[in-house]
Amino acid sequence: MPERAIDFSKPIPLFPLGSCVLLPHTTVPLTIFEPRYRVMVEDALGSDRIISMGIYSSDSQPDDHSIRECVCVGYIAKYEMLAGGRYHILLQGICRAKIIEEVIHTPYRKVTVQPTTGDQIMEIDLQEERARIERLLHDSRLMGLSSIGAVNHWLSSEIPTDTLIDQTTLMTCSDNEIRYSMLRERDVYQRAAWLTEYLQKTRHLIEIAEKYGLPRSDDGYCLN
């Protein structure tokens, strides 16, 4: 669903979590069981299927429900209704956005948001960044990681570079603070630079593990 099809003039349902970050061009499976969020999904399915996914502030107190400024606007690509009114949904990230204000709404929260996609960059202008990333993805040491193998499984020349960056970030990095920083970063060049450095550091760790015979986890990633 293209960004231009989202009506940013009206409030969008907000689904906040404490430990899950959605990025554009990626999908996450979610189980919806709280009554208020079941209503949210029902309402979204009855309209445009749009939900914004946010994350609680890291310094929030147990009774504080503050949300970080940046969210990812997503589209319910698939859903399955379960017994008891619960849902399994597949939420597909569409675009980066920031919260402008929260509007009074029950039983779930709604916010008005503004897209933060940054400047439109032509694919030809990202050739060098993409070449560096693809060289690392095809590096013999990194290809031993299951996450890198999964990236290479669907990688093709037809996938836009910004999609490649977001997908690879989500699939290779489990740190939600880093994922959020990548959600907040508008500049695709900065996101490309971070991912390149991250893959280089990962390769270096694997090289050290091979040199000193350090143990590895099931996916081939070296353990400290």
Structure characteristics:
single chain; 224 residues; alpha+beta; Archaeosine Trna-guanine Transglycosylase, Chain: A, domain 4; 2 domains; five-stranded mixed beta barrel; 6 helices; 6 strands; 34% helix; globular; serine-type endopeptidase activity
Task: Give a verbal description of the structure.
Keywords: Hydrolase, Protease. The protein has 224 residues and is of the alpha+beta class. Helices cover 34% and strands 24% of the residues. Helix 2 (127-137) runs parallel beside helix 6, helix 3 (146-154) runs antiparallel to helix 4 (161-172) and helix 4 (161-172) crosses helix 6 (188-212).
In summary, what is this structure?
With 224 residues, the protein is an alpha+beta fold. The chain contains 6 helices and 6 strands; from the N terminus they run E-E-H-E-E-E-E-H-H-H-H-H. Helices cover 34% and strands 24% of the residues.
Task: Produce the secondary structure layout.
Elements: E1 12-17, E2 27-32, H1 35-45, E3 50-55, E4 70-81, E5 87-103, E6 109-115, H2 127-137, H3 146-154, H4 161-172, H5 176-184, H6 188-212
Parallel strand pairs: 1-3
Antiparallel strand pairs: 1-6, 2-5, 3-4, 4-5, 5-6
Helix pairs in contact: 2-6, 3-4, 4-6
Keywords: Hydrolase, Protease
Pfam family, one: LON_substr_bdg
GO molecular function, one term: serine-type endopeptidase activity
